[in-house]
Structures are given as C-alpha cells and as structure tokens.
Amino acid sequence: MKIRKGGRYSVRNVEKRKRNRREVISYEDVPLEEYNDERTQISKPAVKRILVCLALITVLGLAVFVISNSDNLTPDKIGNWLKYEVFGSHDNGYPVKITGTSVNDGNFLCDGDICYVSDTSFESLSPSGNGVGYNQHSFANPVLCTAGDNVLIYNLGGNGFVTGTKKQLESTKDTEKYIITADINSSGYYAVVTEADGYLSKLFVYNRDKEKIYTYSFAEYYITGVALNESGTGCVACGVTGDNGSLIGAAYVLDFTSEEPVATYPLDENIIYSVKYLNSSTACMVGSSSAYMLDIGASKLNQVEYKQMELTAFDIDTDTDSLVLSLSRSGDGRKCSVEYVDRNGEVIGVNDTDCEISSISLYKNRIAALDNTMCYLFDTDGNELGNADAGIGAKSVRLENTASAYVLGINEIRKISEFNYKDDKQ
Predict the structure, then answer these.
(1) Distance from CA of residue 397 to its chain's centroid?
(2) CATH 2.102.10.10, applies to 76-98+308-426
(3) What does the radius of gyration of the chain's CA atoms come to, in whole angstroms?
(4) From the DSSP assignment, how many helices (H) and strands (E) are in the chain?
(5) Measuring CA to CA, how many Å separate 219 from each of 68, 180, 199, 200?
(6) H-helix or E-strand containing 46?
(7) Largest interatomic CA distance in the chain
(8) Closest CA to 291 of 245, 259, 325
(9) Of 31, 103, 116, 239, which is least surrounded by CB within 10 A?
C-alpha cells in the first residue's frame, strides 16, 4: 500500500495516535473502590435543610391555591368545581366555548335549542351541546330575535339585517335608514323599524316569502320595540317622545288591513324595553317604571307597578302567558324581589330575597335567578326550591326545563343539570 507523507496513514501520525491512546485512562481500568470514593457526599444537616425548604414551598403553593380559589371551596360548590374546573368533566357536551369574544345577555336565548349571537357569529346548539347551525356576521351591534325555528338578527343603529332558521341564515339585507328595532314570528313573518325622513320612525312588514305587505310611518313617537302576532296580521309597537324634559311612552295596536292604528295607549313616563305577544289577543310590555298586560280584544291595559323599586331583570313566557320580574328594593341592584305576574297583570307570587339578581328565566312553574356565581330556583308561588353553582363569570341564565338550565359565562356556555333542592323539594 502506498503511504502519503504527512497523510492519515503516515508513520508520524500513527506514532502520535499511539501516544494519545496511552494518555487516556478508560473507566474500565478504575477499581470499584475508587468510583465510590469519587461520589459527592451531602451532609445530613444539608439534606434536612433541603427538605424543610421543599416543605415550605409546598405549603406556600397550597396557600396561594386556596386563596385564589376560595370562592369555589365552599361545601356547596367544591363538587362542581372539582368536576368541571379541575378534572375537566362535562355533562352532555357542556361546557361549550362560544365563538367570538363576547355575548350580550339579550343575545343568549333558549327556545328548544340554545341560540346566541356574539360579536362575530350566530350559533345554535342542541341540548346535547352539538352544533345545529353556524353563520358569521359583520354587524357592529347585533340583536337576536327567535320564534320557533325562525331567526332574525339586525344591526342596531346600522343598515343590515338577516333572516333564516337555526340551521342556516340567508344573505344579509340592507335598509336605507338605520335600524331601530325588529321582530320575527314563528310563521316566518318579520318586521323592521327604521329611522325615516320627515318622521321619527317607519315600520316595514314582510311575509314568509320576503314580500313587503305593510308600512306605517310614526310622526309622534320614536319606536323602541315591536312584536308581531302569530298569524302575521297585526303588531304592537311601543315608542317614546319628549315632553317638557320627560320621556313619555305609548303603545300602538296595528292591523295590517288598516292604514291607521286600531288603538293607541299612553304609557306615561315609561320607556318600553320589550314587547311580546303572549297569545293572539294579549301582549306583554316591560318598561323602565312599569310593566303592562294589554288585552287587545277587550281594549284593556293592565298595569303592573314597580312601586318605586328598580327593575334588574325580567323574562316573558309565552307558554304560560306570564311574566317574571326582578325588582331591587334597595335601589342599587341588591335585595331583589322576585314577582310572578299572570296574563291579567295580577302578581301571584313574591319572594323578597337578599340576592343581587342580574338575570332571570321563567319556564312553566319554575323561575331561575342568577346572583353572581349562584343560581337560585323558585316556584311561581314565590318559594325558594334550591340552588346550584353557576360558575365564575356567569352573565345570564336560561331554563331548559323545570329542572335544568343553561348559563352564559364569559367565554363558554355551561349547563346546570341538577339543582341542590331544599328539604327534597322537586
């Protein structure tokens, strides 16, 4: 073999490698006793100090953990907290994360399925938590209306609205003027109220085929709420106007076969927040200082006075033709009285609680009231039946049936599958 001078196989390099190998001591050549002698020895006092430090760190960590979760470690909450927050369990697909960053209380509805509109999207969910429908929107101030399977979403103060079903929304429609309010019924008829040149507001009504069937211009009142009857033959529209520095309310009863209102009712110094038909001849109106049951057939307006209490929450149930109110006795949102009102405007049941109720829901003979992280269950006679943990950041509650409810959190929808009943009341 030819060897190149100075190369890998040169005699000089071979000798150098031999010297290097002799300078390296293999671990296999070291006796076992010398291995043992080289191990670092830790004194017993040092070990004790290390253990004490680890124990202190553990205790401090537990203290911080307990303080930060003190609200959840009460006897009535710890079970749900461990189940949902620590171990990540859920009932029937819940909790479900919302799509978007925020959902307003009024845009969280339960009508068979859960429906909500966030700042970016509309979504409907089945009782098991599965998605029924999903659509994105571009509205700055979306407001959701549902009736049966029909859905209407409008851009409050904007020019767009969209109709459809819980499974699929249609394309967005634009209005010439800014939208003030709107409504849809279970037959697919819908109404949109906008601003108008030369008038305070204007009503447009469409049938299920999207054909315009009625218009009416309001010259004296700025319409803030509208409700269509089930057949799509008429509506109730509520509005306000200024009078010597005060806001005066009024309610119009409109028949779509007549050019002029069938009746007009003054509502004194009252701003109507919501109006809804309970049945074909009765409409419920909830305002800032009073609520009303309007018997259209008898042309009778029954007033439900708040008696100088402050309205904090309300809900209207069309299945039982009734209304539930949360009225603060202290005037600052605390110490709320829960009042159940029938179709004649009679207060049937009252419960004077110490709760700060921010959301309330009525389903048949049961009332759910949300007080921060707790949800209380009442019957319509005013008796407290039980309670449940609603979770941190609870914003709104909607009863699914007489024994379970949905809760809107900051970024998720939770489900209360069971209440803790008092004295085994069911």
Answers:
(1) 7
(2) no
(3) 34
(4) 4, 33
(5) 57, 15, 5, 5
(6) helix 44-68
(7) 122
(8) 325
(9) 31
Cis ω on the peptide bond leading into residue 95 (within 30° of 0)?
Answer: yes
The pLDDT, as a whole number, for residue 5 is 39
- pTM for the model stands at 0.77
Q: How far apart are CA 72 and CA 350, in angstroms?
A: 30
Enumerate residues 6+ apart whose C-beta is below 8 A from 414: 84, 94, 95, 390, 391, 394, 406, 407
Please name the helix (run of DSSP H) or strand (run of DSSP E) that holds residue 41, with its range, or none.
Answer: none
How many residues are present in the chain? 426
d(CA 320, CA 216): 31
φ, ψ (nearest 5 deg) of residue 59: -65, -45
Q: What is the dihedral of CA 239, 242, 243, 248, to 10 degrees?
A: 30
Which residues lie below 8 Å from residue 108, measured CB to CB, with a gap of 6+? 114, 115, 116, 395, 396, 398, 408, 413
Measured distance CA(154)–CA(161) in Å, rounded: 4
pLDDT digits (tens, 9 = 90+) for 138-179: 999 999 999 999 999 999 999 999 999 999 999 999 999 999
Strands, DSSP E only, in 261-404? 263-266, 272-279, 282-287, 290-295, 300-305, 310-317, 322-328, 336-341, 347-352, 359-363, 366-371, 374-379, 384-389, 396-399
For the chain, the domains span: 76-98+308-426
Phi and psi, residue 419, nearest 5°: -95, 155
Q: What is the dihedral of CA 94, 97, 98, 99, to 10 degrees?
A: -140
| pLDDT band at residue 111 under the 50/70/90 scheme | confident
154's CB contacts (< 8 A; 6+ apart) are 139, 142, 143, 145, 160, 161, 162, 179, 181, 182, 192
For the record, the structure tokens of 90 come out as: 């859920």
Q: Residue 359 has what pLDDT? A: 97
- The token duo for 205 is 């009504």
Which amino acid makes up residue 425?
K
**What is the signed CA dihedral for 332, 333, 335, 338, rounded to 10 degrees?**
140
